[in-house]
Amino acid sequence: MLATPVHSGTLERTAMKYTVSIEIALPLERVVQLLADPAHMPKWLRGLVLHEPLSGAHGQVGTKSRVVMQMGQQKFEGTETITRREPADLREIPAGSVVHFDREILGEGMWSAARERLTEAGPETTLWVSENEYRFSGLLMRLVGVLMPGAFRKQSRQHMQDFKAFAELGADVREAKD
């Protein structure tokens, strides 16, 4: 799906949807455990400054967290809410299962939702599909959505590639030479 802005009527909001995916050469259970562990986030989530729960337990449905990201000179702060996690217990995931991990982030001028699906692609391979939706309000964020839609897809893909390198090779984005 293309990251094409869609204007939604009189609200003058800009919306964008896209899907990105990647295969990771590890079993499903190992991948979801690595993704769910907050101690690993700084190792693969490029630009992460802070991710702290405000209420609830990290990764659990209903948990709200303060998220701060730094991309170049731009800093973004928002509130993340976990809206779905299935199964709740990420140990001993039955073969053939689909793991769902959904979240919404609300920040100044922007709302986003990410719907993550992880499935077995083979005996030792996991397919990670991420459906992303953004809605922008306010002049600056609407302009960003219209003028730079590819930047959001590129960032999502970069996060997935960084996670793959972390999971498969132990790479840490904090040690990368950009």
TrEMBL record:
<dbReference type="Pfam" id="PF10604">
    <property type="entry name" value="Polyketide_cyc2"/>
</dbReference>
<dbReference type="InterPro" id="IPR019587">
    <property type="entry name" value="Polyketide_cyclase/dehydratase"/>
</dbReference>
<protein>
    <submittedName>
        <fullName>SRPBCC family protein</fullName>
    </submittedName>
</protein>
<dbReference type="InterPro" id="IPR023393">
    <property type="entry name" value="START-like_dom_sf"/>
</dbReference>
